[in-house]
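U., I forgot to send this yesterday:
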Amino acid sequence: MVVLLALVCCAGFAQTQPRLTPHERAAAYMQQGQPRRAIVLLQQVLAKSPGDVKAHNLLGLAFTKSGMLKEANAHFSQAVKLDPRFYPALRNLGLNELELGHLDDAKAHLQQVLEYARQDRTAHLALGELYFAEKEFGPAVDHYLKSEGLFLSSPESILRYATSCLESNQGYRAAGALELLGPQVDARTHFQAGSMLARLEKYEAAARQFELARKDYDDPYEVGFNLTLAYVKSQKYPDAIRTAQELISQKHVKPELYNLLSEAYEQSGQTIEAYNALRTATQIDPKDEKNYLDLMALGVDHANFKLALDIADIGLRNIPNSFRLIMHRGAGFAFNGQFTAALGDFEAAAKLNPQSNMPYYAMCMALMQKDQAPRALEILRQRLATHPDDYLLLYALGESADRAGSSGGVSQDEALHAFERSVQVNPNLAASRVALGRIYLRRNELDLAIPQLERALVLNPTDLSPCYQLSQAYRRKGDKQRADELMAKFEKFRDEDRERHINRNVLQLLRQDEK
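Result:
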């Protein structure tokens, strides 16, 4: 770890000027890159005046410049012993201890410096580096900031500062510092900066860093793939397609690259190209489930359920008894109205993975489509007896109870309590909030319904189904303008995207079981 050593000396004098003191001559030698001459001179000074604090400090600096840190520290320590308040020697001692990896000693001496000079920029920078080395990122950030920008003097320090910010939940500071890296820094630094910016979801900035890294980075595929991903995340799909095609032309034939290229094609409206890219990915690695699942999702998105089912069959020929493929094939059957076949797949999946609750959730949602809510209730109550905090089972229980209604001998409170518990266990499941808002609205508890439905829109902004209930709630509250706005959104959504979003949400829930 390289840190700045402060040279404590008097103002420089030209070598030709008369009346230079020995201390000034020694400082001049070091400025001229001749620390050995400074050592000889200062040793002579100390032979005559062993209590000369400044001479000990200068000699320590001369030894440091010569790479003799232990000898240097002996003189810094002697200076401190002679004058405990002479903080330049304390600081230089701490810096050398940091370089040697003696972190506890370095921390003690650098903190002591701040007792005498609270604003010492070099001491704060060194403490920032020290806390970074100890992975104490919050204190590291504090000291980096108190160095008043001194950490910006090197790309390495900028990266360490940004990492400290990132790891202490101060991402906005990390992003700001990384933007200060100039184009002249090395490719690996640009790559690290891009990776951090991607973690911060600053994808456009990440793409700029990856682009700068491409020229000299030692792994062209790694940087190219990350650049493609950053372009996709920042919705620059033509750039993503161009970058991926460049990698493919360089013989980088990787299934994950074709998978990413497929997403860029699909988002650009090039569905056939997206399909072909995913088919290529399945051919490169026939044992990778993900590409089959994504290809099935593409079929579902375009209501081509036969394609989705065909892909599931191909995948299962290559990966027999794949739990996820069977689950997704079951979903495909359900989307296509083949509920008996769907139930068969969900039951098979449950036998393959008895620990997973997902097949039971899917099974019961399919039973409800077959108007068999009482049977779904029976299955869910049995499963929840041993898995009481599964938010998806709780959501399915609420839906089953709500559909069964009083005619099925079910208390309406059971649905309400199931939805409330599902939201409590997982506040980020939009479906549970929509259902809970629906129940509250039915009870005319508008002040409870509206927050649930509004939150559902935030959690899943592409699904505008809650706009219908929200419109009703605001109309009852007397806010006709807001009600009309929401109804207009819902009607447009219903006409264009509702079925597609419902199916996509189901697949997203099924994909959660992969994690």
